[in-house]
Amino acid sequence: MKMGTMQIRKAEAKDIPFLIQAIIEADKSNTNRSSYCSLLCISEEEFRWGLSQIFEEELEFCEFGLDAFAVIEVDGVIAAACAGWVEEGAGLPSWQLRMMAIQSVFSSTQIQSFIQNAKIFHSISLSRTKGSLQIESVFISEKFRGLGFLFHLIEFHINFAKEKGIPFQFVELLTYQNNLMAEKAYQKIGFIPVTHSNCDHPLVLSFYPSSGMTQWQKKLQHGQ
Amino acid sequence: MDNKTQLEIIFREVFSAPDLHIHEAMTASEVNQWDSISHLIMISKVEEVFGIKFKLKDLIKLKNVGDLLLLIEEKRKG
Questions:
Q1: Cα–Cα distance, A129 to A134 (Å, whole number)
Q2: What is the mean pLDDT of chain A?
Q3: Tell me: the pLDDT tens digits for A196-211?
Q4: CB contact under 8 A, B56 and A92
Q5: What's the pTM?
Q6: Do A54 and B56 make contact, defined as CB atoms within 8 angstroms?
Q7: Which of B29, B56, B63 sits opposite A57 (nearest CB)?
Q8: Does residue A224 lie within any of the structural domains?
């Protein structure tokens, strides 16, 4: 593919629809199952609406905030996005921020569904490491895949955190185990698998794209 | 019953810790059972018991139990 003018930058309000798409597509992990939609018992449209409400607030240090995202623009078109933040950079773990965001926009019935369902499949969750640079909600539009955008986005987050003076030990991310293409891509740029989760509940694949997750880490090389 | 005592009762029930004593500087890292699901349960319970509704802009400012107590007080005053 012939590349036009490429620009990597922090996300802006005009990018929010693409960021919402990135969150949903990453959550679906190349399947048609969004765990958020399944757990909350809502449609993708309702989840999209909820995210648009959440993005109106200035949420930092988790993937539900504009501040966390970087995007790649090619000839003025958004081609890729990914979130990055230092875990507990502001004192609160990202899961707590994410849960508070969900709780604030969805109805009490939807929250009760989320609680009941998430309890059943709790063993699929993996904990993020405090003080690591988290990479989340990576999404590259189909026609821009294979061009090294993943590497550029992660480098951008590494450099941005360093420029802001936020110390971190290593880069960390989670994938669903069905996503072999993503696993290959992360391995290629130096990530190694450090731990796995597994949920053997018979209904897990009705709620999640996969029955397990893998946590990946990449240590920064000297001078990086 | 004051807000702190009522909140302590909620914490003991939600986090299955009958001897738990809350304090202003307490965070999720100090309570074994305080995870994403029990957090949702705890906030729902606080809203129900105190008859209040939190907004996201309120919740993201919460750094510890002391902040939660202040927010409850503020919300109850209306």
A1: 8
A2: 95
A3: 999 999 999 999 999 9
A4: no
A5: 0.92
A6: yes
A7: B56
A8: no
